[in-house]
Amino acid sequence: MSSLIATFTGKTGADSTARVRLEQIVPAETSKFANVRDLYQAWLLAASGQPARLYRAGGCPIEFEGSTVRFFLGFYAWPSDPALPYNLTASLGQLGPGQRVEMAREYSEFVDNASIVALPFFMEDITATWETPTYTRYGERIPPPAISAAGIEAEFAREVFGAVRIAGTAIGDYHVVTVEVDKTAWKEEGQEPPAPSRGDVVIVTDLTPEKLNADKIANIEITVTVTWEQPDGTLGTDQLRLEIPQCVLDVLSFCPGGAPYYLLWCEKSSDRQVYYSGCTGEVISVRDGVNEKSYCSKIALDRDPGPWLRSLVR
Amino acid sequence: MPIPGGQILVAFANRPGSSGNVLLEQEPWDKYVGYLTRAGAVAWLDAMLYGDPEEDLTEHCGIDTAGNVAGVVYAYPEPVSLNYLAGISHGRLGPRRIDKLPYSEVLQVQLETEPALKYPTDKIFSAEWLTDAFTNDGATLPRPAVDISGKRPRIAGAIFGSLLVVYEVVRHTYTVTISARPASVEKAYQSHVYAVWDGGTRAMEYQPPDEAAAGGRCNGRYGVGTINDSPYDPPTVQPKDIERQWDYCSNSAVEE
Hints:
The complex is a heterodimer of chains A (314) and B (256). Chain A has helices at 36-48, 209-212, 246-253, 295-302, 307-313; strands at 4-8, 20-24, 62-65, 68-79, 86-90, 94-95, 99-130, 134-135, 141-142, 147-182, 200-203, 222-229, 235-242, 272-276, 283-288. Chain A is mainly beta. In chain A, strands 2, 3, 4, 6, 7 and 10 form a six-stranded antiparallel β-sheet that branches. A three-stranded antiparallel β-sheet of chain A has the order 5-12-13, with no helix packed on it. Chain A has a three-stranded mixed β-sheet with strand order 11-14-15, with no helix packed on it. In chain A, strand 14 and strand 15 form a beta hairpin. Helix content of chain B is 7%, strand content 36%. Chain B has helices at 38-50, 210-213, and strands at residues 8-12, 21-26, 69-78, 84-88, 92-93, 97-110, 124-129, 133-134, 140-141, 146-147, 154-155, 160-178, 191-197, 200-206, 246-247, 252-253. Strand 1 of chain A pairs antiparallel with strand 1 of chain B, so a sheet runs across the interface.
């Protein structure tokens, strides 16, 4: 089976045109979800009677100041030439001044029958090392061709099939979009928030639908646009829609009490429950008295919490 | 964009007279690898409340206890007797295991008379129409005969219809073990699987599970006797030692 391939014998695969590539700094995909470590931290906090807001999954770019929720979205701009001027605008929020960064980056590139590959950033001090034997497109083994890597391209002495590891110092700019939203936490009228106290920790859930969604903020979209001048005088442009981390969306949308019901500790003798705002972590109320219908009470009457927990709360 | 000075060449991807192909395929990760499922959370809470402190409280994230990503890749050579070399750019490939498996595939035939199969084969066991045969304008036709003596089913007529084909797949299985590059600043588990044969090449990037792609911090033990390696330091309550006098015979506390 043969297929027809059209190739350039000049520089294959790379584009030397001026450009600016935007790259958002996002939490790992799995950081959106709880893991055992989160459970463990929540467990320790609950057992110690600390407010829920003291535990946020690592790296959630958000902070509270009164009723203001402020979150931060960071991204890199990688110009094809560090001297290339460009302009940035954000559709929402405050775009801070850029900060020049020179950071170590590293990745593997499988050169699939090409003589040149584009680098994702302008790099200095590049090292490029073959990770596999090298072949022609017909499967013939050949000596590893010399690699010439600088700036935004890696070029090989001949067309080649093989994997190369590229590392170096990427030069670009770091920017942050800061977004502030006013999000007044709902409090039950007449209730003074009590001080944190030892006791069962329960995130409040028994709210009416109106209260549950009273401060819900959703559908926030932020797009960053970059423009630069091409060598031929035309304007180049690119856009990046910033992904808002799930931990931020949770805070914005599940307020004041939309978080799931967590029962972290049940003790037969306990008669105190501490209610938290799932939005700000504030203590909303402390209620005394055992609710015999609660899941906690039911299992606490029958089950032993175990020696470790008993020792934890003595 | 054309590059000044470049010239266009027209070339054959394979040399005249040689042929072949190798389809590479990664065995997909289980849907919940790297994620704490409801069952996993309940099991963890159960172990903390009532279980043995030595019970396994780890989560399953696709990285073994030695810190390696362990998975499987398949290769389907065409022709099935093709002599090829399999390799990996970082990590280890296990020895080749060859299986001959029956494979059922439903082809949505749309006027093709020799529809392609997903995997290469030398042996088609059966072909059965699941639907009536239709013309381009929806009229029903007698179901055309299907010749299964070749490497693809041959349909005696251009029609629309669904055809169930059962054929033999020759699958080469390789285990993949990838360790993290110790000095890497990122993409520590990135690796490519490739195949080379007389006449062609093929490569595929191996996709590690999300947690490994993100840096591979998982499979820690979080429970009794574990170390908190959270990036910040939340307040915790430390268990206190309590001394009690215990009566050995009655197995009860001695009142002070």
